[in-house]
Amino acid sequence: MRILAQLLRAMAASDTGRAAGLASAVIASNVIALVFTIVFARALDTGYGSLAALLSAFIILMVPGSALQIAVAREVSHAVAAGDQAAAAGVRRWLGRLIFATALAGGARNRGQARGLRDRGQHPGALRR
Questions:
Q1: Contact predicate 87/80, CB 8 Å
Q2: Which band of pLDDT confidence, cut at 50, 70 and 90, is reported for residue 61?
Q3: Helix %, strand %, coil % of the chain (to 5)
Q4: How far apart are CA 11 and CA 13, in angstroms?
Q5: Is residue 40 predicted with pLDDT exceeding 70?
Q6: For the CA atoms of the chain, what is the radius of gyration?
Q7: Where are the domains of the chain?
Q8: What is the reported pTM?
Q9: What is d(CA 40, CA 46) in angstroms, rounded to the nearest whole number?
């Protein structure tokens, strides 16, 4: 038993052991995803197709965002390691612009929805006939 424990500790310290641990975590994640897929497929019956399409679209659209996040984290960590005091200044500036653009787009979208409700007479401020 003690030999097995020593062997496991030695494996965990090596690159191969860490890679095996990561592979085990990915396999476990895929098994959990499979179980949830089966459960939701049974529970949702006809609505499962819509859920699957939305989840697939989300996963596909999530890839560029994840790649951008990794690239920014790498660049900021390199700048911090080099001793740059303003390592994330560009990220903060870019994030401020992104928040502003998102708020602007959301406001324009909500304004269009409110106009549609008002035109149909469903908005609280709409005139009743």
A1: yes
A2: confident
A3: 85, 0, 15
A4: 5
A5: yes
A6: 25
A7: 1-47, 88-129
A8: 0.42
A9: 11
